[in-house]
UniProtKB/TrEMBL annotation:
Pfam families: PepSY_like. Residues 26-42 have a biased composition (Polar residues). It comes from the Bacteria. InterPro entries: PepSY-like. Residues 23-42 are annotated as: Disordered. SUPFAM superfamilies: BT0923-like. Residues 76-160, 204-286 form the Putative beta-lactamase-inhibitor-like PepSY-like domain. Transmembrane segments: none annotated. This is Putative beta-lactamase-inhibitor-like PepSY-like domain-containing protein.
Amino acid sequence: MLKYLVVFSAFILFITGCDKDEDTDQLTSNQPKSTQFETIDNSGYPDVITNYIGQNYPNQSIVEIYMRTFEDGSTTYEVELNNGNEYYFDSNGNYLGMDDSNVNISNDSIPQLIGNYISSNYPEQSIVKAEFEMEDGIRVYEITLSNGLELYFDESGMFLSLDDDSDHISTSELPQNILDYVTANYPDATIIYAEMDIEDGATEYEIKLDNGMELEFDGSGNYVSSDDNHIPIADLPQAIIDYVETNYPDNSIAKAELEYEDGQQMYEIELDNEIELYFDMNGNFLFMEND
C-alpha cells in the first residue's frame, strides 16, 4: 500500500520463521529484545485469553494468535480479532493493552501542516477519508482525496508519498441496487467517494457517505458490511432505545457508534442536545458525558 516507505523496514527485526512483521512500538520500550515471533495454534496459549475475548468482545472472533519470545525467556501473546484490532497479553494471559492499527480520524484531528499541504497542492480536492495507521513499522497519516489519491504523512505532518488509487470510480458507475440501498437506509446522506476493488478474484465496492459511514458491497451490489464505527439507529439494542425514551423524552438520538473504552467495546449514543451516553453490548447503561 505504502510503496515508498520500505526504507524504514531496515529498522525492523526479521526473525527466521516469523509469520508477521513486528511493530517497533508494541508494548513497552524497556522490554528485552524479542528473539522469536511466531504463529501458534489454539492449544498454545492460556485459556484466560479466550475467556477475556469472549467476555469483552462477544461479537468478535480470533483471527490469529502470535507468541513473542524475549531474550530473558519471557513471552507475550498478541491476539488479532476480525475487527482488525490487536490485543496484548502477558505469559499468564493477563491483559496488557490494545492497538488499533487503522484508526479513522476526523478532519479536525489532522495536523495543520497536512491541511496546508493539501490546500496548496490539491486546491480543487477535498478529504473524504483520514486514517492514522501503522505502515512498515512507523505511524503515518493516510489521507484519501476526492479524486482517489492517497497521500501519506509522518506523525508531524510532513509529506512522505502518494498512491494513485486507480480503483476510484464515480457514483454513476455504481450498481443501481447500491444507490437504492443508500437511499433507503441513509436518506439524508450523500455518497462522497466510491471505489471498486478486486479481492481474490471477486469484485467489491466500497463507498463513503458524508455522515462518515463506510459501506462495502459485493460485485452484484449486495450489502456486505460497514467499515466504520457508525451504526444505524435501527440496529441498536431495544434496551438503549427504551432508556433514551424514558430518561430523555424530549430528545432524540443524533448518532450511534461502536467504540472501545479501556479495552471494552461499547455503544456511544449522541443525543441532539450533545449529551453522550455509553452502554455495554447488552444495552445496559454505563455512564454519560456532557460536552
